[in-house]
Amino acid sequence: MSLIRPFRGLRPTAGNAAAVAAPPYDVLSSEEARTAAFGKPWSFLHISKPEIDLPAGINVCSPAVYAKAVENLNKMIAAGILARDAQDCYYAYRLVMGGHTQTGLVAAASVAAYDANRIKKHEFTRPDKEDDRVRQIEALNAQTGPVLLAYPSQPAADQLLAQASAGTPDADVTAPDGIRHTIWAVRDAALIDSITAAFDAMPALYIADGHHRSAAASRVAAARRQPGSEQASYYFLAVIFPHRQMKIMDYNRVVKDLNGLTAEQFLDRLGKSFLVSPACDAVKPSCPGEIGLYLPGRWYRLNIDPKLFVKDPVENLDVSLLSAHVLAPLLGIADLRRDKRIDFVGGIRGLPELEKRVDSGEMAVAFAMYATRMENLMAVADSDQVMPPKSTWFEPKLADGLVSHVID
User: Which of 42, 98, 255, 270 has a C-alpha 20 to 30 A away from that of 157?
Assistant: First the structure.
């Protein structure tokens, strides 16, 4: 099987992309989705978050929820809002957020390559979340939430994407958050073959976001597998960007208390592993090994003792060093997944959000982290290890609804 292949995308028909495009299903709560979709009958949220069309408080994993998604999808197809392309295509997908631009490829990625770790993972998955995605895919007979992948940037593939994204786009939508989403369908057979060959030559792709979606696709493929056949269910919906264009923002930490320490005691103990310097302004780390620390009304700059850096690609991450030398030994937080005393703040919210959480008294201390780099993520995946929880926050986010992959 090819690493990727073109497919007949299910897409908004001409003039309907803006009405359909929606935030990813997993960035909004049910109530937020209900509000966002109010007065928007064709919003893809009616498919990705169908509980918004059912009584408030319903279990989002109820069979009625998946049935409602099917009903809403069929309604949008019957109304001519969504339609499948007549031929197999790739799709160029450009995201623009302020001065940042990234251009990638919408493709069907091989489940066999995922199972063989040629499409590499860096996170553990939760069975309940996998189960939800399996039920959603099986109910819709389609994958509607794309997996975000990265390929190691190379001039040949980059040039093919530039060629694919030239000319008049098929869809061009600026979302309410100001992110611009532009789609070009790639129908030229020669260009399609060149893209397939360029990606087949790559040793690996890397999952950036969407571990539960890809794991669910693998389970669906296994359940539907028929020896000797190549079915649409053996591939999963993905958008693949060159790694140098991808933007990882900081993923910051806030903690409810100082584990019985006073602020002075806490700062003193930090001095055993860090150079601690008071700062006049908010500290946004500018390099690996630097952390911003906020206590009520005061910022500090922490610089990690160089002797603490190690060669292991996981243990050498700033988020790992913070856990090993601050969160666990000083604040008593050993399990980032389950400890209720810690919370995580995506960098898109900015440093003022950290100040707000601490100054309000909700939290006692905040840590502003240097953003994990794509090279870090790829090194972890190449070593067959996993990233610590909440290590990466990718922006801009892909939109749901602009291209879906039917697997019948």
Answer: 98
